[in-house]
Amino acid sequence: VFSDLPKSQNSCNKSLHLVADLSPFSLYHQSRIMATNSVREKKIKSNGICLNVAEKGDEEGPLVVLLHGFPETWFSWRHQIDFLSSHGYHVVAPDLRGYGDSDSLPNHESYTVSHLVADVIGLLDHYGTAQAFVAGHDWGASIGWCLCLFRPDRVKGFISLSVPYIPRDPKLKPSEFFKSFGDGLYISQFQKPGRAEAAFAKHDCVTVMKKFLLITRTDFLVAPPDTEIIDDLEIPSTLPNWITEEEIQVYADKFQRSGFTGPLNYYRAMDLNWEILAPWQGSKILVPTKFIAGNKDIGNEGDNGTMEYVKGGMFKSVVPNLEIAVIEDGHHFIQQEKSEQVSHEMLSFLNKLCKTE
């Protein structure tokens, strides 16, 4: 079902196109999907690959870079792109490497945090800015944390959605830690090349997207014995009001073309990231940061859940310049599910930092 051949890296061009012009849906659905037809997409060269980038807003305004997570594209930020650009910000949201219309490489060694941070640096260089605001969700948050570690000079302020900064364990590789959850843990299942791809391929792409995007579980996503996580995830009988069938189809169309190997390679590079991060052992995040998460996000269940870490003193001890916003009844894909609340939380943080410049 899914093609995982690497896409051509000769596809890079400077042409712009209007997203809504390409939409096959009615004007009503176009308005729901994009709210405006002025979001532009273009291809840029960054770190030796081509990135597809969506942007909107006054190019003279402060630059805000939005980094999506798994399994998404820039489209996951559609509400924030529209909202922040309407308040004077120049908003840029790339398809990360391996996703959407950006280049995808077949080997997991091309998806380390060194590569991913360099992609973002190349993006900033393309726009000619020394510093930018950065926001990331899920894997985009992980990239953002590493950007703040590696190149804090390039980040005015960072907003992390769903994924807090957790210092590197000096003794235990990620893959070894994940084994403690058993083979049913989704991250463990994603480690073996081809395993998750084969499991996903048993379902149509719309079903795969619904199973992930509509997750309301608060555990760490552990499937029963001899069960693939994609088969264990359930789809609600009706869609929640924050997403439409047409919006899900936008994602499905992209993954139908790009496949899932690129996105899954992020998980397969986690042990490599552990090696790369060794020189920053014990380092703190000193960039001004805001953390936003739903109280019903993945992994928040139990006394040892993520929210206990976030609300306790440990998180603040490693990110001293930190604000925290917990959104009630919010799940993992928080910037879509609770788009208005997230957008306002982001805007208040950005405006505050702009006033201090």
How many helices? The count is: 16
- Please identify the top-level CATH class of the domain at 17-170 and 278-355: Alpha Beta
- Order of strands across the widest beta sheet? 1-2-3-5-4-6-7-8-9
| Fourth CATH level, the homologous superfamily of the domain at 17-170 and 278-355 | Alpha/Beta hydrolase fold, catalytic domain
Outline the fold blueprint.
Blueprint: E1 17-18, H1 27-34, E2 40-46, E3 49-56, E4 63-67, H2 78-85, E5 90-94, H3 113-126, E6 132-137, H4 139-150, E7 155-161, H5 174-178, H6 186-191, H7 195-200, H8 205-213, H9 229-232, H10 245-258, H11 261-268, H12 270-276, E8 289-294, H13 306-311, H14 313-318, E9 322-327, H15 334-337, H16 339-355
Protein architecture, described:
It comes from Noccaea caerulescens. The chain is α/β, with parallel strands linked by helices and 357 residues long. The chain has a domain at 17-170 and 278-355: Rossmann fold (3-Layer(aba) Sandwich), CATH 3.40.50. It is built from 16 helices and nine strands. A nine-stranded mixed β-sheet has the order 1-2-3-5-4-6-7-8-9, sandwiched between helices. Strand 2 and strand 3 (49-56) form a beta hairpin. The chain starts with 16 loop residues before the first strand and ends with a helix.
